[in-house]
Amino acid sequence: MEFGKCRVAEFPDGEYKSRRKPLYDLEDRLLEFAANIIELTESLANTRAGNHVAGQLLRCGTSSLSNHGEVEAAESRRDFLHKLRICLKELRETKRWLRLVGRVKKLGSPVNFTIRINEIEELIRIFVASIRTAERNGQ
Asked: Is the pTM of this model over 0.90?
């Protein structure tokens, strides 16, 4: 439940706790993006090329979600930056595979392809900004 800029979480015992959390939730965006990648890979052609691209896209396109969890559990500033950079690398790889899917017609016609490209570009910008901010704050 959301009230203003605060999110209120209901726990199984019925208790409510207020958490200051931005309405923009990166984890939710990464979860939605990973789910879209899974749907996309399932729609690709069942050919040697389609299976190869689907496998690669499935690995890199869903890994940012789990790697973001690693970022949240970083043990040091250096570890934090390293894990952010891993997320960024995986997102950039995903973008390249998505561009290939858009280029090769025999792989199938992905639904909502433009939306996926736009979302990955936004996610890349978010991670680049996060890395720059963390580097600046660490100096």
From this structure: no
Q: Which amino acid type is present at position 117?
A: I
Which domains are delineated in the chain?
24-138 (1.20.1440.60)
Structure-derived torsion over alpha carbons of residues 81, 85, 91, 93, reported in degrees to the nearest 10? -170
- At CB < 8 A and 24+ separation, what contacts does 74-82 make? 77/134, 77/138, 80/134, 81/131, 81/134, 81/135, 81/138
Q: Over 50: is that where the pLDDT of 76 sits?
A: yes
- Measured CA to CA, the distance from residue 84 to residue 74 in angstroms comes to 10
